[in-house]
Amino acid sequence: MYQLTINGLTEQQFLTQYWQKQPLLIKQGFVEFADPLDANELAGLAMEESIESRIITNQNNDWQAHHGPFENFELLTEQNSTLLVQAVDHWHPAAAQLLEPFRFIPNWRIDDLMISFSTPGGGVGPHLDQYDVFIIQGEGKRHWRVGMPDASLKQFAQNKSLLQVEQFPAVIDCILEPGDILYIPPGCPHEGYAVENALNYSIGFRAPNQRDLLSNFADHIIDKEAGNKRYQDPAITLRESKGEIQSTEADNVKQLMQAILEDDILFKSWLGTTLSQPKHEMDLMPPEDLFSSEQVSELIADDEIIFERLGGTRALYQVFENEILLSINGENYTLPESDLSAVKLLTDHTTVTAEQLNSSKNSLLFVQTFTTLLNEGIWFC
Ligand code: SIN
Ligand code: CO
């Protein structure tokens, strides 16, 4: 287990003073940091079809981006190159442990663990991200500069896929050593170049924008064949100008659209599916012999059993109208409120003992739901 310390701040002090406000250098956030994998293992992951990876090179200031999977690593030269692998928490249980210390932030906001390996001089260049990130320094050292958000900062379009920006004044300028962590809020320009071969672990967060939310909600209502109410105007009167859309009519259209967002059941079921949807493939290995509900009841009654949650699983819940809407990897399950403590255990923790689930062992709906989750390989024992 990794134990996080934030420069002597409590988690609440960090949230109040820094989260989404200003960058922070956390010296020795992890004392005696042990890398969960090495560069060879990372390269192995980058050879897999189902894992998203890139190699970025900056030889003689010529920035190039190459997309995996990679058959060989000729591009990963001894200088000025970086290999980046996305969503490693889905594939590597030991690396997934690095997300755990950051779960004091609501879990629906956490996205994935990206790992990079850079050779001296290697980095992705000056850029900004639209989401918060904690960058942990593993093996090696890397020189980082971080600035404050600046709307006038121009994009620097040498390689469009890298979304680089022009040079910026730094408020943090430091050489990260193993166990040091940088917290970078959205919109803060940053750049990091390896001083020696370096592994970096980025805990990324999700911050959906209105465009994505609305288009995703529209897909949901199409899927559910909801939103059938039409515009009506029984009180219409003759008017002088026929070409005008009157402001009351514009308001009525807006209200018609808002009414569907006010449908609480539709909204929350959509929210659960969308926020729990993994963005990357999962390493699902369903059991060969499927469990029956009776077998799962017996498993829950066996105090020795420990259930583990598959890496990358997004497990969230909402409580409304005396029910719980449990959302796992894009699927919703409705459970009675009496299962709340069991649901909290499944969503707040990556492992749970059968003994802890005891309070729900006689809940038919809970046992059925957990049977489905075990049969899909999302929890296993
Ligand atoms: C990296 O590890 O090279 C990239 C991390 C970042 O800048 O977001
Ligand atoms: Co970044």
Report a brief summary of the structure.
With 381 residues, the protein is α+β, with helices and mostly antiparallel strands.
Count the DSSP helices: 9
The share of residues in extended strands comes to 15-25%
Which CATH class of the largest domain applies here? Mainly Beta
Which range best describes the helical content: under 10%, 10-25%, 25-40%, 40-55%, 55-70% or over 70%?
10-25%
Q: What topology, given as strand order, has the largest sheet?
A: 1-11-6-13-5-4-2-3
Q: In the CATH scheme, what's the topology name of the largest domain?
A: Jelly Rolls
Identify low-pLDDT runs: none
The tally of structural domains comes to: 2
Bound molecules: succinic acid, cobalt (II) ion
Q: Specify the overall morphology.
A: globular
Radius of gyration: 24 Å
Compute the separation of the termini in Å. Answer: 20 Å
Biggest sheet architecture: 8 strands, antiparallel
Mean pLDDT: 95
List its salient traits:
alpha+beta, Malonyl-Coenzyme A Acyl Carrier Protein, domain 2, 3-stranded antiparallel β-sheet, binds succinic acid, binds cobalt (II) ion, EC 1.14.11.47, oxidoreductase, iron, NO66-like
